[in-house]
What we know:
mainly alpha, 77% helix, globular
Amino acid sequence: MEPGTITILLTIAMVAGLASGLPITFVLGFIGVAFTFFLWGPGAMSVIPTLIFGKAMMSFGLLSVPLFVLMGYILQHSGIADKLFNAFYVWSGRVGGGLAVAAIIVCTLFAAMTGIGGAGTITMGLIALPAMLARSYNKQLALGCIGAGGALGILIPPSITMIIYGMICQVSIGRLFAGGLVPGLLLASLFIAYTLILCKLKPEKGPGMSEEEALPLREKIKATKAVIAPLLLICAVLGSIFSGVATPTEGAAIGAAGSFILMIIGGNLSWEKFRDISLGTLKLSGMVMWIVLGAYCFSTIYIALGATEFISGLMNDLPFGYWGVFIIIQVIFFCLGMLLDPSAIVMITAPILTPVVAAMGYDPVWFGIVFIMNMQCAYISPPFGYNLFYLKSIAPVGVGIKEIYIAVIPFIILQLLGVVIVSIFPQIALWLPRLIYGS
Length: 439
């Protein structure tokens, strides 16, 4: 059967499966198994478990996923977020939009500590959202900044999505981590700048605290001490990876152990929290692994049917050149992001597009960072962006999903602006990896 025909049939099957409401991992896995059976017969079925458990599940790098998830859940239950939010708010509270800025900064720090997109969203949604609404903040601004800030965990290292991408595409995870740091801070800065400008032009959208509420300098410095431990943890995890002392998996173990120690020192450890952390880690890690299994099954079968040569030939035959093909790829990613989980998109598309990237001469680290930035945008893109449903789950009664869709639109535009900037100026993503690891 022609690869073009196979592509059309696989696409129709995937859309039909997703429309049925089935979990994405079972849709992708079933399609892979079904096509294997009908095209090659029952004798080929043994190839699937051999490929999955002999290759995908044996990757040492994949072990970092549950460790970073564990780290994220420990920090989420440790009470550190409350102290961080208070520390930044006491300094920025007098400024219009100060609460929103504090929420974005804490989401950025959480992203650097956990690598999970939803951790910052849920934590700040429970802490910062009620505080903003109590101070008469514009509801859409409050929802949008938390949703966008939480999505930074997809890009800022140690990003789990980035780990999966590096593992599949055989790109150095350390270089990807280094490459994602500056673009992540760029996006956080764009969010903060937008919030401050908006609240400057329209003060009613984010009123600052009154002069009577402002704390004296001594109290501000005292509150700032809460930032020290999380910063040390970030330096320990990323520093150990960037310096070459630890692999990403070992860095994840350092982070999990360090966050557990901080929780004990802070006196926040209890049996109930330990149980919730363990169950949460098991559920999220299991979900990620199931997505890896299903997507790996789907992409492996598609590649075996000649997808790599077909896609490479198709891209090379396009008359648009270097930038035209790049833009088309990014548009495809963005559209997929409206429907699929970022990890699944990476698992499905990365093995197919890796040869295309090499043939077109794109720098693999730069292309990977732009890819992940697009996936971060997908995380808050309607109708199925994961962060939208995280927000809905913790939003006050009466806040509908449509209102959340509208709230994130300005931040989606800012994220796309970030993608354009990093695409035009690759050094933003490549400067730090080359500084640390050489060219």
